[in-house]
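Hi R.,

Here's the input for the EPU complex you asked about:
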Amino acid sequence: MNRLIIEGGCQLRGDIRCSGAKNSALPILAASLLARGSVHISNLPHLQDVTTMLELLGRMGTDVIHDEDMSVEVNSSTVRELSAPVDLVRTMRASILVLGPMLSRFGEATVAMPGGCAIGTRPVDQHIRALRQMGAEITETEEHIHARTGGHLRGAEITMELVTVTGTENVMMAATLAEGRSVIRNAACEPEVADLARCLNSWGARISGHGTDTIEIEGVKHLHGGEYAVMSDRIELGTYLAAAAMTRGCIEVFNAQPEHAGAVLDALRSMGAEIDEGEHSVRLDMKGRRPRSHDLTTAPFPAFPTDMQAQFVAVNCVAEGSARIQETVFENRFMHVQELRRMGAQIELQDNAVYVEGSDELHGSHVEATDLRASACLVLAGLAARGQTLVDNVHHIDRGYECIEEKFNLLGAEIQRTEAVTP
Ligand code: EPU
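And here is the predicted structure with EPU in place:
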């Protein structure tokens, strides 16, 4: 079991480079199944989830060539296995993203049923409902989703019953090769959805309206493929800025797209950070001051992202004042609360909100990572705490943060990774 050992009390200073976005890379890799020719995808982050998606594509028979600098060339003309097996779906729910492309391109797909996970039950009913509207015959068992079409999917007018990111992506990918026009209403407006649409368009799809809640897709006969560079990771950007705010530091993040991080940057400004947005960079300076508490409510883009909630609970733990943070996207995304309490944080959890009383007294402790963003929150708390913090189960963090200890250490942190010995 991997463990991070964090010596707290540093003030982060310096600059780092933001990686490609995990939640953009995963659907774009899945979309390679739609293309007749090869696709070349660059700016991929070096992450466990990306490796899992590449393994999944490989097991289905796609030809994957790894280039330097985390670029890959994927050719799906050799696909022979139209299923996503349970072992991979269990390790990564985003495997569901191959359902729409496989069905649309090959007329059939079997994907192991993604179960719930640490942050919620996470059903996929909206994906299935929309694909049925496009003419797919879908059977669901406890273990599998099996989908087939009698020929091609048909374009359809679909209204999502709730805003779902991967649901919108799955349906948008399926619609690119469907017969006729599709409209997705109440679509997710997340930048990752728009990035996928731009990628598909560059490969020959005809999508418009991405980035708004109504996406239109004119089906085409095939996608020719091409090149695409994944956008930069707005959640990684926000996480490093939150860490700098918490440690009263001053950092600059390059290769960033600040236009995707509006709600997070606004929150940081309200907490007392001075922020300069460049075209591809963000600089945050706390001028050595302690952050001020700030109330937050998560919601789909452009509101404050659920993927930044845990990190901002951590910032509020050391801030001046008290704050209420409400989670509205997932029903169980506060697993970090009891771990933060071990570090002296004063937090009350009530239904789907936490009340945080800021304190100057966070201390190092032995804590356990339970999911990706919760782990990031514990690392942030460890950086700001007095003394040493041990964070166990950091495999969660490797799913979403490239070289996290190296990047933090570049900013002056003291983090070491070790193999924890199980008693
Ligand atoms: N939902 C349903 N039915 C569906 C789909 C979703 O009830 O068919 C519910 C979910 O249970 C949840 C809400 O709708 O309560 C929103 O879920 P969504 O489908 O938008 O989440 P997702 O697509 O599974 C993506 C990201 C998550 C991120 C969420 C919300 C990827 C690969 N994952 O998940 O990222 O939190 O959108 O923005 O894009 C992370 O990176 O840490 C992460 C969890």
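One thing worth noting: The pocket of EPU is lined by residues 23, 26, 94, 120, 122-127, 162, 164-167, 192, 306-307, 329-330, 372-373, 400 (CB under 6 Å).

Cheers,
M.
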